TrEMBL record:
<dbReference type="GO" id="GO:0017118">
    <property type="term" value="F:lipoyltransferase activity"/>
</dbReference>
<dbReference type="Pfam" id="PF10437">
    <property type="entry name" value="Lip_prot_lig_C"/>
</dbReference>
<dbReference type="InterPro" id="IPR045864">
    <property type="entry name" value="aa-tRNA-synth_II/BPL/LPL"/>
</dbReference>
<dbReference type="InterPro" id="IPR019491">
    <property type="entry name" value="Lipoate_protein_ligase_C"/>
</dbReference>
<dbReference type="GO" id="GO:0005524">
    <property type="term" value="F:ATP binding"/>
</dbReference>
<comment type="pathway">
    <text>Protein modification; protein lipoylation via exogenous pathway; protein N(6)-(lipoyl)lysine from lipoate: step 2/2.</text>
</comment>
<keyword id="KW-0067">ATP-binding</keyword>
<dbReference type="Pfam" id="PF21948">
    <property type="entry name" value="LplA-B_cat"/>
</dbReference>
<keyword id="KW-0436">Ligase</keyword>
<dbReference type="GO" id="GO:0005737">
    <property type="term" value="C:cytoplasm"/>
</dbReference>
<feature type="domain" description="BPL/LPL catalytic">
    <location>
        <begin position="49"/>
        <end position="237"/>
    </location>
</feature>
<dbReference type="GO" id="GO:0016979">
    <property type="term" value="F:lipoate-protein ligase activity"/>
</dbReference>
<dbReference type="InterPro" id="IPR004562">
    <property type="entry name" value="LipoylTrfase_LipoateP_Ligase"/>
</dbReference>
<comment type="similarity">
    <text>Belongs to the LplA family.</text>
</comment>
<keyword id="KW-0547">Nucleotide-binding</keyword>
<protein>
    <recommendedName>
        <fullName>lipoate--protein ligase</fullName>
        <ecNumber>6.3.1.20</ecNumber>
    </recommendedName>
</protein>
<dbReference type="GO" id="GO:0009249">
    <property type="term" value="P:protein lipoylation"/>
</dbReference>
């Protein structure tokens, strides 16, 4: 049974925790509003103490969440969403568009980078052990980000990771009984992407856990994850359960600021622009769409780059470098080489080489 502790007590734990001993916090959100939950996750990330490990469990009502560099008008059917009361949200991180409803259970593992490291495989084991012990569901890790079951490897969980100098974050969803018809209704997947994955529709790739065990539900699944988490860290100090609600916005100014940011329409929708040059391509590392407005002076006055790539900073850097430059082949080569020198990983450099070769065929 969950029980509520008051916000001042939460602050007490934060201020008086020992310097290096791992302190584990298990936090539930009582809100199903996607903007509140994204804001809560960001607030927890920004305020995590050097010795803290956090398990945050949450759930969203009907919503579509798009990646930082995605075009809302292309990724989803906004009019249908508006008519049906489906919220649009945009993450700060990259990746593709997903549909969520009360048939999803969301999890976040959050660790301070000061003295501890995030163990992605251990986190996945916590989830898999919870499913096995409480629901007799056997799953396994597939690829870098997914949990699947069965010989056909149907996906019931996807996740993403974020690392900064302050924290490491591993978050994702477990699909219990999501409305798969809604995925098709509200999401507009790139046809090349679907073709490359060898499936005919969005629904074909996923399985609801209730198809394996009809008794599974959000509350029992959260309790099972909490139990598995406690067993995994039985030798460490674990604080009493914390429950955050919409009322918390009035108590924590930083959380309220994040909520206003994620709910702001300008952030969520971005700008809808009629481009003079627009082209799109699917690469092995993701889909990219570039829109350019170039007037008679030959300069790139406006540039938007939409992508489901996880390398957000590289995409933003390229976009910044393109604006104000001459729209010619030689200029594009120089801009791409400039961007190549500004990124850190070999994967990003390879992506820029791919983008350069592609753009030059479009001019």
């Amino acid at each position: 049974m969950f029980y509520r502790i008051r916000f001042p007590l939460i602050q007490f734990y934060r201020n008086y925790s020992m310097k290096h001993e791992p302190i584990h916090r298990i936090i539930y959100s009582s809100s199903t509003n996607i903007w509140f939950n994204l804001a809560t996750e960001e607030w927890l990330s920004n305020t995590i103490k050097p010795n803290e490990h956090i398990l945050f469990l949450w759930q969203n009502d009907k919503c579509v969440i798009i990646g930082r560099n995605q075009n809302a008008w292309k990724e989803c059917f906004l009019e249908r969403m508006d008519n049906d009361g489906v919220l649009l949200a945009r993450r700060r991180s990259g990746g593709g568009a997903v549909y969520q409803d009360l048939g999803n259970t969301c999890f976040t593992f959050l660790v301070s980078q000061a003295h501890h490291k995030l163990d992605k495989n251990l986190n996945s084991k916590i989830l898999l052990d919870a499913l096995q012990s409480s629901f007799n569901i056997q799953g396994h890790i597939h690829g870098r980000n997914d949990l699947v079951c069965g010989s056909d490897k149907r996906k019931f969980s996807g996740s993403a990771y974020q690392n900064t100098h302050q924290f490491s974050l591993h978050h994702g969803t477990l699909i219990t009984h999501v409305d798969t018809n809604a995925m098709k209704k509200y999401l507009n997947p790139n046809k090349e992407k679907l073709k490359s994955k060898g499936v005919d529709s969005v629904q074909a790739r996923v399985i609801n856990l209730c198809e394996i065990n009809p008794s599974i539900n959000h509350k029992d699944l959260c309790l099972a994850i909490e139990k598995s988490y406690r067993q995994t860290y039985s030798n460490n100090k674990i604080q009493p359960i914390e429950i955050l609600s919409r009322e918390t916005l009035n108590l924590i100014p930083e959380l309220n600021t994040s909520y206003k940011f994620f709910s702001d329409s300008q952030w969520r929708y971005g700008q809808k622009i009629s481009f003079t040059h627009e082209y799109e391509k699917r690469f092995p590392w993701g889909t990219i769409s570039i829109g350019i407005i170039s007037q008679r002076d030959g300069l790139i006055h406006t540039c938007e780059i939409y992508s489901d790539s996880l390398y957000v900073n590289m995409i933003n850097r390229l976009k910044e470098n393109l604006i104000g430059k001459i729209y010619t082949g030689e200029s594009i080569r120089q801009i791409c080489q400039q961007t190549r020198k500004q990124v850190e990983t070999e994967q990003e450099k390879t992506m820029i080489d791919d983008i350069q070769s592609w753009i030059l065929t479009q001019i």
